[in-house]
Amino acid sequence: MRAVIFFLLVFLLWQCKFEKKVEQQSPDLVTEVVEFIDIFKESPPQKSEIVLKLEYFGLIDIHSIDTMIVVDLKYSTTDNFCGQILYEGLTNAYFQPEVATMLSNAQKYLQDTMSGAKLLIYDAARPLSVQKIMWEKVKNTQYKHYVAHPDNAGLHNYGAAVDLTIIDKNGIPLDMGTPFDYFGKAAGNLEKELINEGVLTSNQVQNRLLLRYVMKKSGFSAISGEWWHFNACSLSDASKKYEIID
Predict the structure, then answer these.
(1) N or C: which end of the chain has fewer CB within 10 A?
(2) Are residues 36 and 150 in the same domain?
């Protein structure tokens, strides 16, 4: 709508300048239009409701401290297990400031280990309201143990967890054996067993170990069921230091 108003004003200004009877146009009108357009150009884009909420809770955009890290929030698209957009108006990954610093350190360790490689974030801080939507999707299914019950807030709900992978120097994600948010045994970290069963290859496991190495070196801990998920602290510590995002 703002774009339509902008182009209408530009058209009006064009009329004022180029019509044969331009002298009949009010100079004040032209001045007002020009001033309005200047104000419009200088106005910063409005922040979405979810961004304002995350900033209210003291979280920061990872790109404010590290522009090397790549972000592709799956819940800001329909490419997720819910099949719907859950983060309306959010394209950047937000974390508690100290967690963002830990991630920046992980990116440095990754760069030192694999030249040109970058971290690719799939999910970051998650409001509890979104957790409730996720739970409703799985609560009556065999996959309910993959999603935390909203009554027991998880570290994503504090801005202290991250879901991510690694992309190579060409921007291609490393093969981890399963996609992000895969509900199944193959997403877990029992890699030796999975190799013996022919579920994973040794190369896929090496890629997972690389991700785990740079994250653990930066202070994160992995969980057993999801190769992509890392916690910055314990749930107990998070509840003492941070507020739940709701």
Answers:
(1) N
(2) no
